[in-house]
């Protein structure tokens, strides 16, 4: 096993695991309407042109542009109205010289028309005649065939996380089922003699298990499937049994707690007992979250998160989140939501490690202020009261009040 607490830099934490992770991803076909947050497992090409016909972008009249050239309010062009093209219907009429037809937003143009005159740029003379008060150019106020996307064009690349607008784009092309990567299953084990279920009344010395559920929520946000395994006491054999079950049921194994320097904390030994290569590293140069364990067994990543909820959430972003996306076939995970704000107070730090400080955001009209919340990492309400977190870089000895910082939004 590597030296205990031989720490790695935060930006290298995931890289420790990445070079051991499998490169192949299983795929499945699902309904497009259920694909939000899923990752495409292949390039998706357009099966057709969109739009499939020239469409008007506003209410008005289909015209041949040349019939409007030179038109003005003082000398309008007079056109004969020969009909209309109803919405949702194919055009069943064509225009001859000096003719026009009523057009509706999103509807087809009459045959031989190449542009649309806005309703506001016309005047009715009688039932069969309009005045055109301004000329239009060919193609004006028209969406052309294939202007949105052409048949054969790339719609979504392989490894893309599907967004609401992507679902709309796929359905517009009739792609009602698509191939996506299977969602990684994250097996979660919470450890500690002091833990009891959340619905149980606590006795002195006990605490309710919350990490199973906060970690499950984070897993779901990343497109993974949380698989709670067990709440296990500080007993090596019990933890080893839970770990073996987690390895069978999950693609990723996450232990909560059991990573600190303590004779009763045995996650590293449990991980080493699951198979080669076992523990890869123990410790990341951050605060909170230094006692983090990362390993591999049977081709599956093993991650031991600190038990303190603040630490666990910080480390999750650095280790579990990118691992979930990697196993989903996503090479470029969605960027975390951030904003900029000015610090309201000094934030002390120690050079050589990254500090993560919870903050509350206040202010309006874009003038945000980040107020540090200096609660201990074992207090869940430090997170509940926070709107985000600020990172203090390794090379800095702290941040000063009034300094502009980037805030990772929760």
Map the helices and strands:
Blueprint: H1 13-18, E1 27-31, E2 44-45, E3 55-56, E4 60-63, E5 77-84, E6 99-103, E7 115-118, E8 122-126, E9 129-132, E10 142-143, E11 154-156, H2 164-172, E12 177-181, E13 185-191, E14 195-196, E15 207-208, H3 211-221, E16 225-232, H4 236-249, E17 252-256, H5 267-272, E18 277-282, E19 286-287, E20 293-297, E21 300-305, H6 309-318, H7 320-327, E22 338-343, E23 347-348, E24 354-364, E25 367-373, H8 380-384, E26 388-392, E27 398-399, E28 404-409
Parallel strand pairs: 5-6, 13-16, 13-17, 14-15, 17-21, 19-24, 22-25
Antiparallel strand pairs: 1-12, 2-11, 3-10, 4-6, 4-7, 5-9, 8-9, 18-20, 20-21, 22-28, 23-27, 24-25, 24-26, 26-28
Helix pairs in contact: 3-6
Structure description:
This protein is an alpha/beta fold and 410 residues long. The chain has 4 domains: 10-25 and 183-327, 3-Layer(aba) Sandwich (Molybdenum Cofactor Biosythetic Enzyme, Chain A), CATH 3.40.980; 30-50 and 148-181, Molybdopterin biosynthesis moea protein, domain 2; 55-143, Molybdopterin biosynthesis moea protein, domain 3 (Molybdopterin biosynthesis moeA protein, domain 3), CATH 2.170.190.11; 338-409, Beta-clip, CATH 2.40.340.10. 17% of the residues lie in helices and 32% in strands. The chain contains 8 helices and 28 strands. Helix 3 (211-221) runs parallel beside helix 6 (309-318). The longest helix has 14 residues, at 236-249.
| Nearest-integer average pLDDT | 93
- Structure classification: alpha/beta
Number of strands: 28
Radius of gyration: 31 Å
CATH H-level homologous superfamily name of the largest domain: MoaB/Mog-like domain
Low-confidence stretches: none
Strand content: 25-35%
What composes the largest sheet? 6 strands, mixed
Helix content: 10-25%
* Oligomeric nature of the chains: single chain
What CATH calls the topology of the largest domain is Molybdenum Cofactor Biosythetic Enzyme, Chain A
User: What best-fitting shape do the alpha-carbon axes yield?
Assistant: elongated
Strand order of the main beta sheet, please?
Answer: 7-4-6-5-9-8
Rounded to the nearest angstrom, the distance between the terminal CA atoms is 35 Å
The CATH architecture name of the largest domain reads 3-Layer(aba) Sandwich
């Amino acid at each position: 096993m590597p030296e205990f607490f031989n720490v790695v830099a935060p930006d290298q934490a995931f890289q420790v695991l990445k070079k051991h992770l499998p490169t192949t991803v299983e795929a499945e076909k699902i309904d497009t309407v259920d694909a939000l947050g899923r990752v495409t497992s292949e390039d998706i090409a357009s099966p057709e042109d969109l739009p499939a016909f020239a469409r008007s972008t506003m209410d008005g009249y289909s015209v041949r542009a040349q019939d409007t050239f030179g038109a003005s309010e003082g000398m309008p062009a007079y056109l004969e109205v020969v009909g209309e093209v109803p919405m949702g219907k194919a055009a069943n009429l064509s225009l001859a010289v000096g003719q026009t037809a009523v057009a509706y937003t999103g509807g087809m143009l009459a045959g031989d028309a190449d542009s649309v005159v806005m309703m506001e740029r016309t005047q009715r003379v009688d039932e069969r005649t309009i005045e055109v008060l301004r000329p239009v150019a060919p193609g004006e106020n028209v969406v052309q065939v294939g202007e949105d996307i052409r048949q054969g064009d790339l719609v979504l690349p392989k490894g893309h996380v599907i967004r609401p607008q992507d679902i709309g784009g796929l359905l517009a092309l009739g792609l009602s089922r698509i191939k996506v990567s299977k969602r990684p299953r994250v097996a979660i084990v919470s450890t500690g003699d002091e833990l009891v279920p959340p619905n149980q009344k606590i006795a002195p010395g006990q605490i309710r298990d919350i990490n199973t559920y906060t970690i499950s929520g984070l897993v779901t946000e990343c497109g993974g499937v949380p698989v709670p395994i067990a709440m296990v006491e500080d007993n090596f054999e019990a933890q080893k049994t839970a770990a073996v079950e987690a390895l069978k049921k999950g693609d990723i194994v996450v232990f909560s707690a059991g990573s600190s320097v303590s004779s009763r904390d045995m996650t590293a030994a449990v991980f080493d007992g699951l198979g080669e290569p076992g523990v890869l590293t123990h410790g990341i140069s951050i605060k909170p979250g230094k006692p983090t364990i990362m390993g591999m067994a049977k081709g599956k990543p093993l991650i031991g998160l600190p038990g303190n909820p603040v630490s666990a959430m910080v480390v999750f972003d650095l280790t579990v989140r990118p691992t979930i996306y990697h196993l989903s076939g996503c090479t470029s995970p969605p960027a975390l939501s951030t904003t900029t704000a000015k610090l309201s107070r000094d934030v002390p730090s120690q050079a050589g490690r990254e500090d993560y400080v919870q903050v509350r955001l206040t202010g309006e009209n874009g003038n945000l202020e980040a107020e540090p919340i200096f609660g201990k990492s074992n207090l869940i309400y430090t997170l509940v009261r926070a709107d985000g977190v600020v990172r203090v870089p390794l090379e800095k000895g702290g941040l000063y009040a009034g300094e502009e910082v980037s805030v990772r939004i929760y």
